[in-house]
């Protein structure tokens, strides 16, 4: 008699890419199983996208309570219990895990293009707020990349309204984008995208990975992990900033998260926060360990502060970031970048009905 039970090793996964296309990985087609390492899955995605500067990127997934995690390259898919409990099918989201402090200095155009797609998504979904004048400048670079030079015969009134740039988009913004687009003559897509990143990197919330926590008297805070350190926000205002070289230890126990910082007087101070639960606290701790390792200061600085930072890993739980650091990414001589004759297939943004002109 035939068995209708699913084979335990069977795996079917959809990966949503930054251009909103999907990459499907299955046991039948790629041999992906629950016993497959996360690094193998990441490898398929990087080859599909033709990326070499890979350590900035990762794959996210959500558990049933909408807590987000990063796929660990060193673990098998089966070891990601929160992922396995959601499927099948399983959904992963490709995106930037570590935002380059200056994305314009990335070596390959194809890497900058993926950064452009991610930051554009961050602005559209409200994770990267920006003032109206900056939003207009960014929108004009998007239009220039998508449509090329302004042409009055092709780009009739209201053509900008077919695209989405920010939440709750207003007609005034679209008019401003159209005016700026007319001034960008001659910029090819790569140039427009580099200019977009050059403006976006100066925004306060660029590259900030926010984690909600509680301080004294259950007051709400957010800890933001950034390329330069940990930023503390309260009521959407920055109330503290601690640079990676001066953070000597992070630790968590149950729901309590500790951040230990070396002051200018060489004395250490501990800051304590409460997470919503142990799962979110451990996730914050892991992200903090990985950010510190990726963006740490040069290893050849052998001063007392460097020795202090060496204590960073001496915490109760074992977790190590296994990829290249930001410093190694910029100095790695093993791969000659940019590669010659690389072509990029750009995707068109989703469009909407043109806004009807109001009289």
From TrEMBL:
<dbReference type="GO" id="GO:0016020">
    <property type="term" value="C:membrane"/>
</dbReference>
<dbReference type="InterPro" id="IPR014352">
    <property type="entry name" value="FERM/acyl-CoA-bd_prot_sf"/>
</dbReference>
<keyword id="KW-0206">Cytoskeleton</keyword>
<dbReference type="InterPro" id="IPR019747">
    <property type="entry name" value="FERM_CS"/>
</dbReference>
<dbReference type="GO" id="GO:0005856">
    <property type="term" value="C:cytoskeleton"/>
</dbReference>
<dbReference type="InterPro" id="IPR029071">
    <property type="entry name" value="Ubiquitin-like_domsf"/>
</dbReference>
<dbReference type="InterPro" id="IPR019748">
    <property type="entry name" value="FERM_central"/>
</dbReference>
<dbReference type="InterPro" id="IPR030696">
    <property type="entry name" value="Band4.1-like4A_FERM_F1"/>
</dbReference>
<dbReference type="InterPro" id="IPR011993">
    <property type="entry name" value="PH-like_dom_sf"/>
</dbReference>
<dbReference type="InterPro" id="IPR019749">
    <property type="entry name" value="Band_41_domain"/>
</dbReference>
<dbReference type="InterPro" id="IPR000798">
    <property type="entry name" value="Ez/rad/moesin-like"/>
</dbReference>
<dbReference type="InterPro" id="IPR018979">
    <property type="entry name" value="FERM_N"/>
</dbReference>
<dbReference type="InterPro" id="IPR035963">
    <property type="entry name" value="FERM_2"/>
</dbReference>
<keyword id="KW-0963">Cytoplasm</keyword>
<dbReference type="Pfam" id="PF08736">
    <property type="entry name" value="FA"/>
</dbReference>
<dbReference type="GO" id="GO:0031032">
    <property type="term" value="P:actomyosin structure organization"/>
</dbReference>
<feature type="region of interest" description="Disordered">
    <location>
        <begin position="323"/>
        <end position="359"/>
    </location>
</feature>
<feature type="domain" description="FERM">
    <location>
        <begin position="11"/>
        <end position="299"/>
    </location>
</feature>
<dbReference type="InterPro" id="IPR000299">
    <property type="entry name" value="FERM_domain"/>
</dbReference>
<dbReference type="Pfam" id="PF09380">
    <property type="entry name" value="FERM_C"/>
</dbReference>
<dbReference type="InterPro" id="IPR014847">
    <property type="entry name" value="FA"/>
</dbReference>
<protein>
    <recommendedName>
        <fullName>Erythrocyte membrane protein band 4.1-like 4A</fullName>
    </recommendedName>
</protein>
<dbReference type="Pfam" id="PF09379">
    <property type="entry name" value="FERM_N"/>
</dbReference>
<dbReference type="GO" id="GO:0008092">
    <property type="term" value="F:cytoskeletal protein binding"/>
</dbReference>
<dbReference type="Pfam" id="PF00373">
    <property type="entry name" value="FERM_M"/>
</dbReference>
<dbReference type="InterPro" id="IPR018980">
    <property type="entry name" value="FERM_PH-like_C"/>
</dbReference>
């Amino acid at each position: 008699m035939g068995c209708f039970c699913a084979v335990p090793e069977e795996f079917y996964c959809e990966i949503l890419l930054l251009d909103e296309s999907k990459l499907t990985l299955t046991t039948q087609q790629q041999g992906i199983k629950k016993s497959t390492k996360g690094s193998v899955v990441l490898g398929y995605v990087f080859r599909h996208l033709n990326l070499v500067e890979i350590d900035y990127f990762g794959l996210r997934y959500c558990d049933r309570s909408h807590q987000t995690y990063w796929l660990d390259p060193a673990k098998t898919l089966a070891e990601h219990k929160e992922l396995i409990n959601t499927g099948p099918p399983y959904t992963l989201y490709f995106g930037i895990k570590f935002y380059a402090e200056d994305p314009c200095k990335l070596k390959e155009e194809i890497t900058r293009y993926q950064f452009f797609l991610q930051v554009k998504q961050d602005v559209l979904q409200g994770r990267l707020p920006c003032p109206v004048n900056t939003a207009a400048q960014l929108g004009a670079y998007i239009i220039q990349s998508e449509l090329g030079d302004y042409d009055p015969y092709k780009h009739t009134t209201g053509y900008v309204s077919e695209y989405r740039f920010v939440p709750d988009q207003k007609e005034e913004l679209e008019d401003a984008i159209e005016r700026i687009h007319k001034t960008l003559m001659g910029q090819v897509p790569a140039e427009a995208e580099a200019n977009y990143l050059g403006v976006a990197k100066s925004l306060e919330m660029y590259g900030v990975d926010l984690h909600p926590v509680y301080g004294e008297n259950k007051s709400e805070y957010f800890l933001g992990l950034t390329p330069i350190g940990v930023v503390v926000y309260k009521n959407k205002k920055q109330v503290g900033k601690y640079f990676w070289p001066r953070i000597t230890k992070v630790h968590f126990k149950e729901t309590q998260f500790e951040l230990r910082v070396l002051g200018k007087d060489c004395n250490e101070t501990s800051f304590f926060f409460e997470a919503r639960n142990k799962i979110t606290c451990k996730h914050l701790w892991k992200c903090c360990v990985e950010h510190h390792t990726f963006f740490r200061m040069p290893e050849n600085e052998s001063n007392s502060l460097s020795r202090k930072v060496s204590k960073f890993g001496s915490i109760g739980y074992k977790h190590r970031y296994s990829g290249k650091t930001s410093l190694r990414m910029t100095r790695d001589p093993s791969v000659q970048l940019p590669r010659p004759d690389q072509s990029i297939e750009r995707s068109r943004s989703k469009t909407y009905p043109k806004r009807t002109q109001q009289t």
